[in-house]
Structures are given as structure tokens and as C-alpha cells.
Design goal:
2 copies of one chain form a homodimer.
Chain A lengths: L4 E4 L8 H15 L2 E7 L5 H12 L5 E7 L4 H10 L3 E5 L8 H8 L9 E5 L16 E7 L6 H4 L1 H5 L3 E5 L11 H11 L4 E4 L8 H16 L1
Parallel strand pairs in A: 1-4, 2-5, 2-6, 3-4, 3-5, 6-7, 7-8
Helix pairs in contact in A: 2-3, 2-8
């Protein structure tokens, strides 16, 4: 099994996260690196989605992944083994989110000169990660079908801050009471600008569309 | 549609939550009220499970429910309509967890003299609620099959603090790569004392067992 670098993230000392996040965003822009902050509840399928997506992108752009978890290194190893791209594991030491300074601690371990896209897999949590700007170029989230179509009503901030909502596990739609149109309507209520892409990381449905979205973001960001 | 009481919870001013939680636990013991703190990730099926369980218990003991959510009142209304037991909605104002003082703010709106069991449906989140003792008599959590059997590895504290783990949505087990025995093994690694009950709030599997567990807790607590 591949070994991955595990970074123990220290609690942020910056008082003003917004300022720090803006500074990081500018810095990344200077490097020509697009940082996607990917959020979701636990078990929504973030890692499987990333593997599928990265395998469609890695011959076109240079991708790296930072996996944030309270404990464990399973996800970073999975990404590295299944895609071959650089993946590091961030341990949050029990903390429920990442802020800009914590994100920077992870980025310090990547060779940004040779990277176009960094995907940050944030801690599985629909509440706290939405409250902290990581300095990302864009925010995306995964809502999986078994969680229910009412989540935008219950976790308003998360849906408000996301540029893209992936609705994952569409393959099991027949076994759950999930109405995609209703879900889209709820998302729109929280954030009229958010795009919604239904995907199945298992069957591959919608993954091309997500990969195209990412590619477009990265290319536009470089200009 | 039934109207429910919505309580806007204020941020706790107590510096020492553990002390406050112990005091609340003693007080509840004095009232003969058993408080179950029920936690889970978003969309694991807490409310549906409660409806099924309460309908099996309500002729034997007097039950009340506190639904904690960042926003909305859907869950409290659902509980009240489907079971007829008192249900109030706690709004956390964006906060990701409840502590003992916040729990007390909710309990103040229930008539504890006439209640044997209060179930607190905590904010949908596998991280923060585990860090704050609510003053509950016991902690339980729901892990749903679509979330994956590896969650005890990723959210160690949550599984460490729970006396009972309900594995919900067993009806969709055939469509997911979820190994119940492996899951039990992971739970045991975090907490050798935790009981695991597989349930399906949809088909009713295991709900009798959960109801019996609760009844036993309430009866033992009264002695």
C-alpha cells in the first residue's frame, strides 16, 4: 500500500480569517493554482467522486488532493493508489472545519509550481466548514440521494456558499424518496447562482460534466 | 398542519460545560426524566426512526421530543403529527452542536413533571455534538448504511461517547458496499461497551429492539 504524507494541522492563530483567506486566494491566483473546496456530510461519496473525476482530468491538467479528516489516512491512500496524483492527508486534531491558515499549512506541503488544480476534501460536516472561508477559488458540495432532498432547507449556509452542488448516488434514486426537481428548487432558494449536477460516482453518470466544469474553472482562472 | 413551539437557543454563557452537564443530569434524575441525546450525520433518518419508536412506546411511557436544527421546523411538526407526543423545535442560530445550558433552555419549555423520556435530536453532524456533554442520561447515534461502514474510523470521538449505535437503512444494504460485521468491529475498536442494533426505520426491522432498550433505560433510571 502507498504511503501518504500526514500533516497534523495546528489550530489557526489568525484572528481575521476573511482577510487571510483573501490573501491566500490572491497568492494562489499568482501561482496559477485553482483551489476547489469540496464539502459534504459524512459518507456522501466525496473520495469516490474525486477518483472518477481526477482520472478524467489528469492527462489534461496537473491535479493534487488534500484530504482533511479528524483521523485516519485511508482517503489519501485511496486517491493516490487509484489516480496516481499527489495526495496528502490533513489531520485536523478533532477540529470540525478548515480555515484559510489551516488550508495554507496543507498547501505548504505541495509543490504549487507544478500544479494547476488543488482539491481540498474538507471535513465531512454540513455545518462548520461553511462558516470558514478556506481561501478557495470556488466552493462545491456533494449532497447524496440517501440524505434526502430537504437538506438545503436544514443547512442553509452550506448551500448559500457553494458555487456547485453535486447530487451524488443517483443510481439508488429508485430506493429513496428523493425528488431531484424539488431539490433543485430548494438549492435555488438558498443560492440562485449555484449550479446543480446530478452524478453517480458508481456508474459514472454526470462525472464528465463535473470534470468539464472543473477544467473550465481552471482554464478561466489562469487567464 | 400542527404548529410547534420554536425556541431560539442562545449561546451558552457557562464556562464549565462538564460541571453544568453533571448538574443537569442530577436534576433530571431527580425529576425521574431520562434524557436521550440522539446524534447522527445529516439525512441518516433520525426523525423517521423516532416516529416509529415513539409509536411503540407512547402507551407505556410519557415521551417528549426536542428537535435541534439550524433552521426550519419540519421535524418537530412531523414528530407531533405522526406520534401526538409533545415536540418542540430548537433553533441553534447556526451553531453546530448543543451543550448542557442550551439543552436546558429547551427543557425549560417542557413540563418535566409529566414526562418519563425526553429525546433530544441533536444537530446533524458527526463531529461537534460529540464534543459537548448535553447532560443526557445516555448518548445514542444513528449511522446509516449509505454513509459506509468505515465511519467509526473517521469520526472516532462520536463512536467513543455513544452507548448505543443504531445502524439504519438496512433495507438498502444490497445496493451499498456495507459490511455489518466489519462495522461492528470498527465500533468495538472505538468503544467496546457500545451496543449495536441494526434497524430499518422504513420496514420496521430492529425498532422493537430499540424501543425495548429505551424502555429498559427509562425503567432502570427511575429506580
Amino acid at each position: 500500500m502507498d504511503e501518504v504524507k500526514i500533516i497534523e494541522i495546528k489550530k489557526s492563530v489568525f484572528a481575521d480569517n476573511e482577510k487571510d483567506a483573501d490573501a491566500l486566494r490572491q497568492e494562489l491566483k499568482g501561482w496559477g493554482v485553482f483551489l476547489l473546496n469540496l464539502m459534504s456530510a459524512p459518507g456522501s461519496g466525496k473520495t469516490t467522486t474525486l477518483i472518477q473525476t481526477i482520472n478524467r482530468l489528469k492527462d489534461k491538467i496537473r491535479v493534487a488532493v488534500m484530504e482533511a479528516d479528524i483521523d485516519g489516512d485511508v482517503d489519501a491512500i485511496r486517491i493516490k493508489e487509484a489516480t496516481g496524483v499527489p495526495a496528502i492527508q490533513l489531520h485536523t486534531g478533532g477540529m470540525c472545519h478548515l480555515d484559510a491558515e489551516m488550508t495554507r499549512q496543507g498547501l505548504d506541503h505541495l509543490n504549487l509550481e507544478n500544479i494547476d488544480l488543488v482539491i481540498l476534501e474538507n471535513v465531512g460536516n454540513l455545518v462548520c466548514p461553511a462558516e470558514f472561508d478556506t481561501g478557495s477559488s470556488a466552493n462545491a458540495m456533494i449532497l447524496s440521494v440517501p440524505e434526502g432532498d430537504d437538506k438545503p432547507l436544514k443547512y442553509p449556509l452550506m448551500f448559500s456558499v457553494c458555487d456547485l452542488v453535486l447530487v451524488n448516488k443517483t443510481d439508488v434514486m429508485p430506493y429513496f424518496d428523493f425528488d431531484l426537481e424539488r431539490c433543485k428548487e430548494y438549492v435555488k432558494r438558498r443560492n440562485p447562482m449555484a449550479q446543480v449536477i446530478p452524478i453517480s460516482a458508481k456508474t459514472g453518470e454526470g462525472i464528465d460534466q463535473f470534470a468539464d466544469w472543473l477544467l473550465h474553472q481552471v482554464q478561466t482562472h489562469k487567464k
